[in-house]
# Entry
Amino acid sequence: MMSERKKVSINDIIKMKGAGRRITAVTAYDYPFALIADKAEFDIILVGDSGGMVSLGYESTIPVTMDEMILMSKAASRAAKSSLLVGDMPFMSFQVSREEAVRNAGRFVKKGGMNAVKIEGGKEFADVVRAIVRAGIPVMGHVGLTPQTATLWYGYKVQGKDNRSANRIIEDAQELEAAGAFAIVLEMVTEEVAQIVTEKLSVPTIGIGSGAYCDGQVLVLHDILGLYDRFTPRFAKKYADLSSIASEALANYRNEVTTGKFPSSEHTFRMDPKELQKLKARLGKLTEAEV
Ligand code: KIV
# Structure
């Protein structure tokens, strides 16, 4: 019998950095894929606000609401029992006040079944991170490219190409660590800067499009599986083309319905022959009586 994997804890994630063990993370937004990711033994499953785009079909992550994030979190947490679950705080769920940020982080844990939350933004949110951590909820930081505000301001651009931008990323990551973040996502940061940040921090860095020197890697599930039709970032590697496989399967089903090949006897339920005989006899009598 296969032994069940122990639940991954925040401490396990922090210790992996010291042990030189690369941290594996992937996004998931529903029951079936969270189950697959959990069985594949990912250390972290991130219920990212990217789910607003790849699963709910929004143009960006801006419109995603807390209610939608909680719904996706609940579905994922019903499936994933051993990966560490991180819920992504959506745009405007943590910016208005520290109180609102703590309340919304609490919803992820109490209602969504998450073990931690993630916040996009640099040192300007250190006080928010501190307040959530003080409330007892672990926080993952996210610096470099921050899609929630990038789409409003400057678009998707590699971060840390010049000295000024590099310094900002290093400072942001250090201040978030000082505020109590247990890990920091580095998104689309140059490899050199990601390496410096990784060496400077005692908590792990999780890279997405930030090169090989991060302590771990995260990718969006739909990019890995070829399930998102609109845009695939250059840093994402497609490991399967599930969209083609699903299209082919659906076309086969549709054809079999139109040609009458489906359903066959294998997918059909039959009556007990004696009961059928009785039914036919009764229906025959009924018909006679009516005539
Ligand atoms: O929402 C998300 O999927 C993310 C990852 C890109 C880290 O924030």
Q: What stands out?
A: The domain at 10-241 is CATH 3.20.20.60 (TIM Barrel). The longest strand covers residues 139-144. The pocket of 3-methyl-2-oxobutanoic acid is lined by residues 27, 46, 48-50, 88, 142, 185, 187, 208, 218, 220 (CB under 6 Å).
